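no rush on this but wanted to send it before i forget. what follows is a protein written twice so to speak, once as letters and once as C-alpha cells for the fold. mainly i need to know what kind of three dimensional shape the backbone takes. thanks a lot i owe you, the record is right below.
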Amino acid sequence: MSQQNLPSGAGEVAEQYPDVWNAYAALGEACAKSGPLDERTRRLVKLALAVGARSEGAVHSHARRALQESIGAEELKQVAMMSIPTLGFPAAVAALTWIEDVTEK
C-alpha cells in the first residue's frame, strides 16, 4: 500500500518516520511471502485477524482492499459470521457493521 493510500494516522507515521514505516512494510511483505497462501486467502485471513483484534480501522481497510481485489461483499460478511463461535455475537455484529460500512457504499 502506498503512503498516499494510508489512513491518516498511519500516513502521519510513515511521513514522520519513514525508516520505521519502511521496515514495518518490509516485515509485512516478508510475512505474506513466508508460506503458500495465495493473495486472496491472505486478504481474508488479514480481515479475520482485524475482526479478532476488534480493530474497526483495520476491518475497514482490509474490506476496502478486498473489494478492490474482486473479493465479494458476501464473502467478507461470512468472515464476520464465522467469528460468532470464537468472538461472540456482539463482536461479530460489530465486525459485520464495519464491513457493511465499506460494502454498502
Residues 54 and 94 are 8 Å apart (CA to CA). Residues 18-32 form the longest helix (15 residues). The chain has a mean pLDDT of 93. The chain has seven helices and no strands.
